[in-house]
Design brief:
about 280 residues; alpha/beta; nine-stranded mixed β-sheet; 9 strands; about 15% strand; globular; binds adenosine monophosphate; binds fe (iii) ion; binds zinc ion
């Protein structure tokens, strides 16, 4: 079985629509795909519709929650949670709204130096999408200021840039507890990916495990061999599941669907541990 549990659609910063993502998963020969947009489940219905139309793949409905611990940014994957659980819904709405204000502030700062307006950025995002720096990157590409997202991040959008601004993110322990309360299964995405900025120490992961964390995404393109080994070792020590996934963003990143995958037994443990919504089978 080929199982990829981390992908993005136009409901956040991916370039495939949710239905297009399901079609791409079928084309890539996946048996199971999880849709994990940033801070949003807005793509769930359209992706589920593609299965109802007969797409031969199993769909894990999920998301990737922007979190913070000790001032360090963390991404928490949530699988199969109840997307109507109000305390979690409210936190996600707060994060998305903060992301929009932050994107406007980044564009304001950038607009001092390059010809870029808010309308350029708004044109890159589907209505209701979780706004992120990739949409600003796409606007810079559309304006001919950079070649691609990677160059936009290198020159203008990286977290050390003078144009960078932060946004509200959930406390990581609270997020783990909210996902569990919503019947979901929380897995820490790319925990030691230092290319993304500062990463947490083992004690933070221990604290998350105590709060109900189910697994670590050890196999990720942003991990080098040592970081992958560290995640596997820590997962084994704490009794956590080990996952691997592509973090596919369509044409927004070179990551290919199914490039990294999760073992069948781990997927089955995630499904067995969830009480929010079921895995959908096409
Ligand atoms: P944000 O959510 O606004 O903080 O932006 C972070 C997102 O930007 C990540 O989820 C990635 O999808 C994307 N990203 C970060 N670095 C790069 C890069 N070098 N090339 C393409 N996308 C990137
Ligand atoms: Fe992303
Ligand atoms: Fe992430
Ligand atoms: Zn992701």
């Amino acid at each position: 079985m080929r199982i990829d549990l981390h992908t993005h659609s136009t409901a956040s910063d991916g370039t495939d629509t949710p239905a297009g993502l399901v079609a791409a998963a079928v084309d890539a020969g996946l048996d199971v795909v999880a849709l994990t947009d940033h801070d949003s489940t807005a793509g769930w219905a359209e992706a589920a519709g593609a299965l109802a139309q007969g797409a031969p793949v199993a769909l894990v409905r999920g998301m990737e929650i922007s979190c913070v611990a000790d001032g360090i940014s963390l991404h928490l994957l949530a699988y199969l949670h109840d997307d109507t659980y109000e305390p979690l819904v409210a936190e996600l709405a707060r994060a998305r709204s903060s992301r929009e204000g932050r994107a406007r502030r980044i564009v304001e700062a950038l607009g001092q130096d390059v010809p870029l307006t808010w309308d350029d950025v708004a044109a890159q995002a589907r209505p209701g999408a979780t706004l992120g720096r990739p949409h600003i990157a796409d606007a810079l590409v559309a304006r001919g200021i950079v070649e691609d997202r990677a160059e936009a991040f290198r020159h203008y959008l990286h977290s050390g840039s003078r144009y960078h601004r932060g946004h509200y993110a959930l406390d990581a322990v609270a997020a783990v507890e909210l996902v569990r309360a919503a019947g979901g299964v929380p897995v820490l995405a790319h925990p030691f990916a230092a290319v993304r900025g500062r990463t947490v120490g083992d004690p933070v992961v221990e604290e998350l495990a105590d709060a109900g964390l189910a697994g670590l995404e050890a196999h990720h393109l942003d991990h080098d061999a040592a970081q992958t080994r560290r995640a596997i070792g820590l997962a084994n020590r704490l009794g956590l599941l080990v996952t691997g996934s592509s973090d596919y963003h369509g044409t927004g990143k070179p990551n290919r669907l199914g490039e990294l995958t999760t073992d069948r037994a781990v997927f089955e443990a995630i499904e067995a541990g969830a009480r929010g919504v079921p895995v959908l089978r096409g």
